[in-house]
Design goal:
single chain, 532 residues, mainly beta, 6-stranded antiparallel barrel, 6-stranded antiparallel β-barrel
Length: 532
């Protein structure tokens, strides 16, 4: 199930992934995900304040309407928001209940093309509906027994099955919500329920209601290894860890869900990366405003629900069944010119375990512009054997995020129902061409530790995602020239310890982004503070 995605130079961002991942995707992180690793020197972004959205009272009109929404607890104690759902029409009381949340709430390791279908849920997963601050004595956990469906490909959704039935939930006054086939247009007033935890006092981590509006729609959104389509940008406030999966409705139709929260633009980060999703365009990635909150569409899930549950083979179902070709790629961020020559796609396609994948066709273009579902622009299909097909074409020279579309089929025609099914959900690779130097200058954290053997402790400060790596050198002030390239070495997250008695010192730092673009050398004087 796990994708073969790798990110070029990403290992150097040990200001990195483990510490930053909770900042964008808005589940409440387990303790291991709560902070950057020691020595990273990365600034800690401010979490969006949960108190900006008011708590919902259980007995209020909103409380009665929102009883189907509550707390989802997953692996490692991570927290999300989830909602009991069902197809429109009569509910089968004896059927096991389904709850809807984000795909990353089910499995945050999913890659660009991963789809999870019908697998057991790990032990300890639970859903607590009617999760209000003033009815704590009534809270009841229900066990999640199965991941019916989950993906972060195009959308960010999961459908989870409980051990309890709809009748069991109805005894608590909890009845399922339905999903809209529509998506909110810009300017549409919205109402969104969610239970944030990050930055919220423990006694106040319950359901809240945001009233806000859609500010843009049908957005192509990129974050980390994920490529999403048709998202809605909102100005909803109070969104933080734990809000993931929060149901969003329009103000005029508060009964049907039009989407769910999935990520925010984290204040304190720069550029594009984890915690800083960016929008695709023909002119390059667009950095949205701080605290913009994004909503994933849910209409495709609704197209697959009926009285029996979620059926991927239901007529008209538009969810990806995970039957496409396999694509292994680096997810690279690169300059146009590399030590090995012009930057190229580095993707290998292998059959996806179905006889339909005897051929594969490719096309590529800017993220947010190229339509991988349209047959127009695909090259002539190539024969696909078990050994696979490599795609090594040069990348475009202009800065942007580019998508490689790969669709498998039974022949070289690009026609017929099997090709149509593949083109509806093709596989992707992506590569970001970045020839632009970081927009910020290096900074250094310099601390003096007094004592019998007084020393300075010096480290460079990361600025994700503009500066994610450093080369450094240091030495006596009179003998150290930061403009001289000799002597620089990779910074390995180990601060320099410089004896004060041997100073004054000069500390030199060159910052790099993930593509290897460098800042000018920065010079830092390591001398006693004024007045000492």
């Amino acid at each position: 199930m796990k994708s073969a995605v790798r990110t070029r130079k990403r290992a150097a961002v040990s200001a990195g992934a483990a510490g930053f991942i909770a900042a964008g995707l808005i589940w409440g992180a387990s303790p291991v995900q709560a902070a950057p690793p020691a020595g990273a020197g990365a600034p800690r972004p401010a979490a969006a304040a949960g108190d900006e959205a008011p708590l919902v009272d259980a007995g209020s009109a909103d409380g009665k309407r929102l009883r189907a929404t509550g707390r989802l607890v997953g692996g490692g104690g991570t927290t999300c928001t989830a909602t009991l759902v069902h197809a429109p029409g009569t509910v089968n009381p004896g059927a096991k209940a389904l709850v809807l949340s984000n795909g990353h709430c089910a499995d945050d390791t999913m890659g660009t093309n991963d789809v999870v279908v019908d697998k057991p849920a790990p032990d300890g997963w639970s859903y607590t509906p009617a999760y209000f601050h003033d009815n704590v004595a009534e809270h009841k956990k229900f066990t999640v027994e199965r991941i019916v469906y989950a993906t972060m490909k195009d959308i960010d959704v999961s459908v989870l099955r409980l051990t309890a039935t709809y009748a069991d939930l109805a005894k608590l006054g909890v009845t399922p919500r339905t999903l809209s086939s529509e998506r909110p247009a810009p300017g549409t007033p919205l109402r969104a329920a969610h239970a944030p935890t990050d930055g919220v006092e423990p006694g106040r981590q319950y359901l809240r209601l945001s009233t806000c509006a859609a500010t843009a729609s049908r957005i192509a959104l990129h974050e980390h290894t994920w490529l999403w389509r048709d998202f809605t940008r909102t100005d909803c406030l109070g969104i933080s860890g734990g809000s993931s999966g929060g149901p969003v409705t329009t103000a005029h139709d508060s009964g049907r869900l039009v989407g769910m929260f999935n990520t925010i633009v984290t204040p304190g980060y720069l550029g594009c990366g984890l915690g800083r999703p960016c929008e695709g365009s023909g002119k390059g990635l667009v950095v949205p405003p701080d605290k913009a909150a994004y909503v994933t569409p849910v209409d495709a899930v609704g197209s697959c629900l009926d009285a029996t549950g979620l059926r991927l083979h239901k007529r008209g179902c538009r969810l990806d069944r995970g039957e496409q070709v396999n694509v292994a790629f680096q997810g690279q961020e690169t300059r146009t010119d590399t030590p090995d020559g012009p930057a190229r796609w580095d993707a290998r396609v292998t059959p996806g375990g179905t006889a339909r994948h005897s051929y594969v066709a490719f096309k590529s273009g800017p993220f947010g512009v190229v339509d991988c579902t349209s047959p127009e622009g695909y090259d002539k299909p190539r024969r696909l054997t078990s050994a696979g097909v490599e795609h090594k074409e040069p990348l475009p020279a202009h800065d942007n995020l580019y998508v490689l579309c790969a669709a498998g089929g039974p022949d070289a025609t690009l026609k017929g129902p099997d090709w149509a099914a593949s083109l509806a959900h093709p596989s992707y690779a992506y590569a970001r061409v970045d020839n632009t130097a970081p927009t910020v200058a290096p900074k250094a954290d310099i601390q003096l530790f007094d004592g019998e053997d007084a020393s300075y402790w010096v480290r460079p400060v990361y600025a994700p995602w503009e500066i994610t790596m450093y080369k450094v050198k240091y030495g006596p002030k009179a003998a150290t020239d930061c403009t001289d390239p000799a002597g620089y070495r990779d910074y390995l997250n180990i601060p320099a310890t410089l004896k004060a008695a041997d100073g004054p010192w000069t500390y030199c730092a060159i910052g790099y982004d993930n593509a290897g673009n460098a800042t000018p050398p920065a010079t830092f004087a390591v001398v006693p503070p004024s007045g000492r």
